[in-house]
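Possible regression after last week's pipeline update?

I re-ran a chain I had predicted before the update to compare outputs. Posting the input and the new output here so someone can diff against the archived version. Not blocking, just want to make sure nothing changed silently.
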Amino acid sequence: MEFRTAGVIGAGAWGTALAQVCVRAGLDTILQAREPQLVETLTRTRMNALYLPDVPLAESLRFTADLADLGGCDVILAVPPAQHMRATLTAFSPHHRAGVPVVLCSKGVERGTMKLMTEVLAETLPDAPAAVLSGPSFAAEVSRGLPTAVTLACADPVLGQALLNTLSAPGFRPYLATDLIGAEAGGALKNVLAIACGISEGRQLGRSAHAALITRGFAEMTRLAVAMGAEAETVAGLCGLGDLVLTCSSPQSRNMSLGLALGQGQTVEQALAGKRSVAEGYESAPAVRELAARLGVEIPIAEGVAALLAGEIDVDGLIDGLLSRPLKAERV
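New output (post-update):
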């Protein structure tokens, strides 16, 4: 099984970075952007100044605004925001060839349906073998070739190994897993938890509080993932714990920067104003909250963040609510 050409759907920061990875891996790569004007700018300047400034793009990387141009590719990387995944894959469906794998590279739970991206893929492109790419990775670093390790999950180990070999590139090391739910669930919840860590930083609550949020947040992530059918071992890897640590530890994270603004006294509307890149935690928080309630799983940090974003409580209410919870034994 050999892949020579790659189509990347979505020319945001992460999609552009992954297109760079594909080129470094030796693939003939085409990057799709929704806006024809962006395609023209990318082609002319070899830069994505809107989403990934100061990063020169590979000379061989091609650009298009037409999803049909990806129809002949051997592998597809789907990188639209999670809440736009269904519409994007539906639009691509007339051009998809049966059997061509789709690697899902966006993290989140679909609002309304509470479905993971693999479920969305199964409903929109039922003939597409699925894989999930997730792990601690900042787009700016990946695009420059800085060392990065991620999880590549695929239920078919033969296809998974082929994709592993295909997407491995200098500075970019994927590890193979078969637990797609584990790879997705960790990535969906970590964005919500990163908002909590940003709030802690914005309020200057200290490193002890920050460490506690990551640790107890990981417990929430594990409980929810296992209830969804994931393996705890997967969540303890790059796609869960690794991604959580990175996203909760740097203002480069869109989700942590949103929390930082909230902790410093901005309203949700002020914190989101003028942002071109999506903070997936904001979009996914209501769905994660509803999903946990349906499964009977306690996720007090993530639930508190969802309540804050919905305007049900303020920052002080979030902090007080977490600190006043009943005393109990520590366990996952």
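Follow-up from reviewer: compared with the archived run. The mean pLDDT is 95. Marking as no regression found.
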